[in-house]
């Protein structure tokens, strides 16, 4: 894994139109690449006023009061909280990844399960499984639109099947906006899934890390984002079963800052999580940077607007490139940094005995042509041949990545 990461992400291997034109174009990792310099410029223009106290242990591993207050204010404003989020109900850690690890350890016992949609964010199984030994239980849509309220039945079926297999389901992950599909769940569907969780006394984990990355598309029917925090959910789900996750990595283009938060009104869960955060403590200097960004409300507003405009423009460009090349993709996507792309016509029998093998071979051929895209096999896709294409890049990078992708597809014909 470490070797693969440095082969794809290492400084000296990555494409730069001026600095490394022969480098690998990574249109597989979900980062807000086009906004990274905006963060760097913010830091350059501001005297962050580091003092000696910013390099001590601070208030401890739960997140300083100032950070939690700034985050609570940001969430209340941008997620339109129905019941205001209080700083005391927030816990911080070194990213949502760490939160998932801790939630696995606190919400279940080894061998218990978590319900995950298909396809699914690639790291959920490891985040919950590696240390906490929580099993991913993937929910196949079996032809049901997974964004429609009817999808609750498929979760019911998966739960029943898991029971028969001796797996006790502890939680359902609602990744909204969805990674990798780039779509938002309508409120009706969120409510149907809340009722389902409440009925079975399982926890709903709402991962809303892409919430402020909903951009304009030509498809006016695309669903707009609704946060679980934005309406009175108490008649659908006991608040003790509802938990919200957010972080600096996506909307705010700070994947390397390592800072995420959990919001919960469940005091027992908060106590249990607080007892293990010392293993996932966010650095004080990281906190300080996040505080400066979050407290500058005018800058954040402008930053999010610019980010959405850039996402709209780069998504428009890749959609055009795909339309011209006759590649199918998800027209309903309007959120996140990616499109779900159907490359199944380019899977070839010469590449293996089954579709998943062919998909892996196609991925390797792309890598040989210096372009990386994450395949569906790594994201619990229901059928082989789908890829998540990340478009949050500048135009030169996207065009180069696309040129190499098309070259690989041509070689398949
Ligand atoms: C849906 C989702 N949740 C969480 C994460 C990871 O968040 P963090 O960087 O805060 O650990 C990612 C990263 O790709 C993601 O796509």
TrEMBL record:
<dbReference type="Pfam" id="PF00155">
    <property type="entry name" value="Aminotran_1_2"/>
</dbReference>
<dbReference type="GO" id="GO:0006520">
    <property type="term" value="P:amino acid metabolic process"/>
</dbReference>
<dbReference type="InterPro" id="IPR004839">
    <property type="entry name" value="Aminotransferase_I/II_large"/>
</dbReference>
<feature type="domain" description="Aminotransferase class I/classII large">
    <location>
        <begin position="63"/>
        <end position="405"/>
    </location>
</feature>
<dbReference type="InterPro" id="IPR015422">
    <property type="entry name" value="PyrdxlP-dep_Trfase_small"/>
</dbReference>
<dbReference type="GO" id="GO:0030170">
    <property type="term" value="F:pyridoxal phosphate binding"/>
</dbReference>
<dbReference type="GO" id="GO:0008483">
    <property type="term" value="F:transaminase activity"/>
</dbReference>
<keyword id="KW-0663">Pyridoxal phosphate</keyword>
<dbReference type="InterPro" id="IPR015421">
    <property type="entry name" value="PyrdxlP-dep_Trfase_major"/>
</dbReference>
<dbReference type="InterPro" id="IPR015424">
    <property type="entry name" value="PyrdxlP-dep_Trfase"/>
</dbReference>
<protein>
    <submittedName>
        <fullName>1-aminocyclopropane-1-carboxylate synthase 1</fullName>
    </submittedName>
</protein>
<dbReference type="InterPro" id="IPR050478">
    <property type="entry name" value="Ethylene_sulfur-biosynth"/>
</dbReference>
